[in-house]
Amino acid sequence: MNRTQYKNQFSKDHYDRMNLSVPKGMKQVIKDLAAEKNLSLNAYILELVRKDQEGMFDTMQLSEFNRNRILTIKGNTHDGYDVFLKDGRTFHCRTKLQIRQYLAQDSQSLAQDT
User: Fold this and answer.
1) 82: β partners
2) Mind listing the pLDDT tens digit for each residue in 26-77?
3) Numbers of helices and strands, H then E, in the chain
4) What is this structure's pTM?
């Protein structure tokens, strides 16, 4: 496998690609906003998503340790929450308290495994 094939395979294995459509002229606005913060367009969008997640993590009162374990949380108080961990596991909880309890219990079990 040559270098280009390796890089392409690595990207395919480790990253998801997505196309984003915005109204005419908005692309330049977003690029300019990213440039003002010395970020690439990709890094800027990821930063916005991270900040949105931080807001949810704050309302759930999650510890820094648990924030670092979570890839994302989707849901609401009516339907419950789907929690996606960075290690590939997912779980569903009805309340924010149940999420904190699950993560605390999972942390204890991980500590016992090591």
Assistant:
1) 74, 92
2) 999 999 999 999 999 999 998 888 888 887 888 888 888 888 888 888 888 8
3) 5, 3
4) 0.61
